[in-house]
Amino acid sequence: MKFSETLLEQFESATLPKSQWTHDAHVRVGLAMLSHYPFDEAVCRLRAGIIFLNKAHQTANTASSGYHETLTHFWATAIHLFLTRSKDISTDSQESTFLKSGLAANTLPFQFYEKEALLNSDHRSRFIPPTKLSLDWENLSKFMNP
Q: Which domain of life is it from (predicted)?
């Protein structure tokens, strides 16, 4: 079975309950999307899906809540780089390895961005590249082990 197929179906149909739309679910959906689609298409689908799901949950997508472009792009890039470098293992092992690693930590973006900057509306509305570390495999791989 590919990455979290049921979760992906619930995400795409906006039937995933709000209580289950956790950081872990975001990462699992990202893993599934990026295993099914090329990077740019996956990012577009993630963007549209998150906005659609937020609307279904009655979560406003504004300058201060809801969808966050920089975080979506950050996580998509981190997952894509990981998947690209772990093609030699099964998809089940890829998912398990990623989720057990420091790459899945919800605090990972703060290793690459100043927290205050990442949380402002500029970063929410458009992708802004990291300022602390470049978002590449050399830097990401340092966080593989929790």
A: Bacteria
Q: How far is CA 6 from CA 28, 40, 84, 108, 133, in A?
A: 11, 23, 23, 26, 35
* The predicted structure's pLDDT at residue 14: 96
> Angle at the Cα of 30 (from 37 to 134), degrees rounded to 5?
95
HEC-encoded secondary structure of 80-138: HHHHHHCCCCCHHHHHHHHHHCHHHCCCCHHHHCCHHHHCCHHHHHCCCCCCCCCCCHH
Q: Which domain holds residue 56?
A: 5-143
Distance set, CA 113 to CA 40, 70, 84, 123 (Å): 22, 10, 23, 10
Buried b (16+ CB within 10 A) or exposed e, 104-115: beeebbeebbee
Q: What is the pLDDT of residues 80-107, one digit of tens each?
A: 999 999 988 887 789 999 999 999 999 9
The confidence score (pLDDT) of residue 60 equals 93
Number of domains in the chain: 1
What is the C-alpha to C-alpha distance for residues 102 and 21, in angstroms, rounded to an integer? 20
